[in-house]
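Each field is set out as follows.
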Amino acid sequence: MESDNYKTIKTSSKGIYKEKGSRFISFAFPVSEQEEIKAIIDRLRKENHTARHHCYAYVLGQERKIWRVYDDGEPSATAGRPILGQINAIGLTNILIVVSRYFGGTLLGVSGLINAYRAASASAIQNAEIIECTVQDYYEITYPYKLMNDVMKILKEEGINQSNQSLDLECSIRINFKTSLRERILNRLTRLDGLKYKYIDNR
């Protein structure tokens, strides 16, 4: 069975690397969508407007299939790729790392740049708290009031989270549980005659 766990960082963090007068300030952020990433990068550009380059890499999703690197004027593959390499080395996802470079007047060369962006990214990750999260499925279930005891018995036995509960002749509850338990839980619930479910989200 495929794991529904993934590693990310709990809160934003910062790091720094200095080489021959240049300063590489790194910023790591927990993120979940690309629109959020654009807003963070725009803000960093304004806050660090005297930096010459703002290079970044990000990875999104439990399966880590959504990613991008950006060199922002640095020689190709000398900035974004090394940043991504540090993210991949630990297997993180839902993370953005931006490295803002303040040029010190001395060219570092390709190998020097790769090392600098790698070291700056590693510094931000080292200063972050890495956490393990679980992907959850979210559903809304509806059922006649007469099924209340049966439904609650299943939810309790499976340790299912509940919210937005509405109790009437027709009851509804929003539930969420680990994605890996989806088939078992839905099979149990749908055995109850009159219960219906609607998929909401997976995150």
